[in-house]
Design brief:
The protein is an all-beta fold and 332 residues long.
């Protein structure tokens, strides 16, 4: 892995960032990724058979800078296994002390596997386990409207059937937050579940606006990004919001150095820096000191300036996946 240096980073390495349909090493489109402690990176991805055709979704790991496929028939030996099968929803759920894996048989071929880090409940994911051990699973976005599913150790309970929930996370007090994927004539919302009471805490600014990502900082402020279902241009979404439980602060292309309003992911590291993934605006660091840094095709070796998934590991490596292809690991 080549190492490069600039004012933005001390080292940088790309994996399968050159799209080459003659080589299976360059076809991965990442759907989710996790890394805990010194464990290797694990990610779900599908292969691109050509520019317009996608292949089967699968699990992979990165060992000694080499991509290795995961044999799910062997990998999950010793994991807890649950099965959700109701009204067209067919999901296998595997969990251990570190990770939650969801295999959605009825989901798009390109997003059957989704992974959550059980040690990072403050960063949004498609599934998570709460402090009481209940398993929460979001909707199947292909079938739409199957609500939010919770397994309490005995049976599955469905909340808000008819609504599509996209992602969930927990604040530092263990309170659940869940965001919806609305129709084109509806506004996305964030709902909160605390002491068996549901309420709506965030409503997006307009129809087709929705929240794909949420993260809580060390002071328990909620940070969220907003996209538009109509387009992911720089001006299409609403940028980034900070919600302190009472007041909302918005950072966008008009009032800050955020280069793009279409925000797809936010990861908050141990130093409380906010790492923001955008469509076309690159990867942005909004430091706890208020400083903005922008990583895009012009300032870094990113193959494309659309960054969909971000995590920062225990060695301060920043991992990010580019839309359509590419995985990068770098250090500041």
């Amino acid at each position: 892995m080549p190492e490069l240096k600039s004012e933005l980073y001390s080292e940088w390495g790309n994996y399968f960032d050159t799209l080459n349909y003659d080589s299976p090493d360059n076809r991965y489109y990442i759907g989710s990724m996790v890394k805990y402690g010194d464990n290797p990176l694990i990610y779900s991805a599908f292969t691109r058979l050509d520019y317009y055709t996608s292949g089967k979704d699968a699990l992979f790991t990165l060992i000694n800078n080499k991509v290795e496929p995961i044999d799910s028939s062997q990998f999950f030996v010793g994991y807890n296994h649950l099965f959700l099968n109701e009204e067209g929803i067919v999901k296998h759920i595997y969990s251990n002390q570190d990770y939650l894996f969801i295999y959605d048989k009825r989901q798009f071929d390109t997003q059957k596997w989704l992974i959550s880090n059980l040690h990072d409940k403050q960063h949004s994911a498609r599934g998570q386990i709460d402090q009481q051990g209940n398993i929460w699973i979001t909707s199947n976005t292909k079938l739409r409207g199957d609500g939010l599913h919770m397994y309490n150790g005995i049976s599955w309970i469905n909340f808000f059937e008819g609504t599509t929930f996209y992602t969930i996370c927990f604040d530092r007090n263990g309170v659940l937050y869940a965001s919806t994927l609305p129709g084109y004539e509806e506004r996305g919302i964030i709902m909160r579940y605390d002491n068996n009471i549901w309420d709506t805490v965030i409503t997006c600014s307009g129809n087709a606006k929705w929240v794909p990502c949420m993260s809580f900082d060390k002071e328990n402020n909620l940070w969220l990004g907003v996209l538009s279902r109509w387009a992911v241009a720089p001006e299409s979404g609403d940028g980034v919001y900070k919600f302190d439980g009472k007041n909302v602060t918005n950072y966008n292309i008009y009032n800050s150095k955020l280069p793009c309003n279409s925000v797809i992911d936010i990861f908050i590291d141990d130093a409380d820096n906010k790492w923001i993934g955008t469509y076309s605006g690159g990867l942005i660091k909004f430091g706890r000191d208020g400083e903005w840094k922008i990583y895009n095709k012009s300032s870094a070796p990113l193959p494309i300036s659309s960054v969909e998934h971000i995590l920062v590991d225990n060695k301060e490596n920043i991992w990010c996946s580019a839309q359509f292809f590419g995985l990068a690991r770098f250090k500041e």
